[in-house]
Amino acid sequence: MNGISNLSNLQLKLKDNKIDILIINRSDEFLNEYISPYAERLQFVTNFSGSAGKAIILQNDAFLYVDGRYTFQANEQINQNEIQSKHLKIFWQDLKTYISKQNCKIAIDPKLHSIKEIQKIQDYIINTSSKIKFLESNIIDSIWTNKPSIQYSNIFDHPLKYAGNDRVKKLIDFKKYLNEKKIDHYLVTGLDNIAWLLNIRADDILYTPLVYAYLLISQNGKSSLYINNDKINDQLKSEIEKNINIYPIDNVENIFSDIKNDEIVGLDFATTTYDFLIFLKKNNIKYKNTTNFCILSKAVKNKVEQRGALNANIRDGVSITRFIYWLKNEIDINSTDEILAANYLKSLRVNNELFHSLSFDTISAFGKNAALPHYRVDDVSNVNFKIDNIYLVDSGAQYYDGTTDITRTIILGKPTLEQKDRFTRVLKGHIALSNHIFSKGTKGTDIDYLARQSLKEIGCDYDHGTGHGIGSFLSVHEAPQRIAKNTMFESVELMPGMIISNEPGYYKLNEYGIRIENLVLVKEKSDDLLFFENLSWCPIDRDLVKKDLLSNEEIEWFNKYHSNVYVKLNRYMNEKEKQWLKFVTEPL
């Protein structure tokens, strides 16, 4: 097939197999957001490398669906003669149209789609002559020569001094939950849920310390964990085996083999792949759609995890502050580029106490690249810095006591009046959320408008959520808490102990981008009220602030924030850095 594109090759396969539509999710068998090279099927077919997307492939047509973070990137990466990029919000509408048009055979890999998603597609075809063909092996894999293989890393313990709760206590709480729900077993497939529940970590996925695993919790008798046996040390294995039987992950098809006829298996239809439902139905095993106990329990951090987050963000704040000092005072601008800057920031982090890895690929974006919210620098896109331009850096780290994520927008030289105006409006949105005191029961969707208000006054907005949940030495994007428009995502009420990002932005295509991100901890103010406690500490670039746009209350927040930055960080700085920090945190 020399000279033919991967997409064209795939479309020939669809014709050979009389398949009208193939649906591709950017995911793996665990429905992870961050996936390993072996699972990058969407990228293999379309060349799009972003972290979220879907595709509808027809025999003679193809469509890639991405959200607003990736619109420009998608159009840059795909071959627009072969495939068209569309907004993710119209994916379902389009799919319904294609399915209803004709007598369709729709191919789906049940290992890569949630039960909830497949059921939605099944609803669409009820009154049509279309049929779903569940693939036993993925059709993309049949054309993917030199496909990377799945890689397993060493599994290690996440000790009580960082986790705050031991695995036995968590298992007991999970089993109490099953008892309340009248469920005998529960299938856990989300890797961050398994890692949190069992206090285990690994590096099976880059930047996210997860173990490839499946877990069946049984209310009576021992539970079952399926992992790569060769990657766990004897001590940790024997510790876990006091409560859980361990089996090879390749034998996961046996996970329900000991279920009795009168027993019920619980699983979360939103986060479990459809192939498990196929198996349950085939073996006449009773099942029940039940929310996973781990999701909310993991999101509400215990006191040890909260303290770890505070400490991790201080260490991380020192690194990003020293990085900004370097940018403002020490770089030779003509010999600095995005990759060099990202590598220098990493070099500042790696020596921090309890550092494990970065928490995602650093977004090191200069000039017009900063207008791409999820820009990823590589050798082709890498650009040199130039004076009087904006540089946006969104970065974070995995520490054994917490996960960090922070964004700063820096002007190198002098900003334009427009840039100062837009930056200050983003800052106003950031402050509005930071200062907000809200009733218990408030959802992230209820307060998202605060972050956009000042931008909307001049007809501007940004096409991404304002805040996402953060794990504790886990995923940098953690469900279920988020701050976003109602139209974007389902939302849950914000609860004390949740950690969430506050990151409004503004992006002017082909010119510059602005984002200010801190992490905040939801805390109790009174019996009825909650507030956000700031976790991230690093100067906000006052060279971009238009003071007369700020109210007295906003100026007070800005000055108080900077006073705290100096108090918390100055002791870690050398003399030159300390003098600079004193200057850039002076009151407005």
List the helices and strands and how they pair.
Layout: H1 6-16, E1 21-25, H2 41-46, E2 54-58, E3 62-66, H3 71-77, E4 84-87, H4 91-101, E5 105-108, H5 115-124, E6 131-134, E7 156-157, H6 160-163, H7 167-181, E8 185-188, H8 191-198, E9 200-201, E10 214-218, E11 223-227, H9 234-240, E12 244-248, E13 264-267, H10 274-282, E14 286-289, H11 293-299, H12 303-329, H13 338-349, E15 355-358, E16 363-366, E17 389-395, E18 397-399, E19 402-403, E20 406-412, H14 417-434, E21 437-439, H15 444-456, E22 467-469, E23 478-483, E24 499-502, E25 505-508, E26 512-515, E27 518-524, E28 529-534, H16 552-569, H17 575-584
Parallel strand pairs: 1-5, 3-4, 5-6, 8-13, 11-12, 13-14
Antiparallel strand pairs: 1-2, 2-3, 7-9, 8-10, 10-11, 15-18, 16-17, 17-20, 18-19, 21-28, 22-23, 24-27, 25-26, 27-28
Structural overview:
With about 600 residues, the protein is α+β, with helices and mostly antiparallel strands. Helices cover about 35% and strands about 20% of the residues. Strands 4-3-2-1-5-6 form a six-stranded mixed beta sheet, sandwiched between helices. Helix 5 links the parallel strand 5 and strand 6. It starts with 5 loop residues before the first helix and ends with a helix. The relative contact order is 0.09.
Give a brief outline of the structure:
It contains 17 helices and 28 strands. The chain is an alpha+beta fold.
Query: Biggest sheet, in brief?
Result: 6 strands, mixed
Record the strand order, biggest sheet: 4-3-2-1-5-6
Shape: globular
User: In percent, how helical is the residue content?
Assistant: 25-40%
Secondary structure category: alpha+beta
Q: Uncertain runs with pLDDT below 50, 5 residues or more?
A: none
Radius of gyration: 25 Å
- Termini Cα gap: 64 Å
Number of strands: 28
What proportion strand? 15-25%
Q: Give the overall pLDDT as a whole number.
A: 96
Number of H/I helices: 17
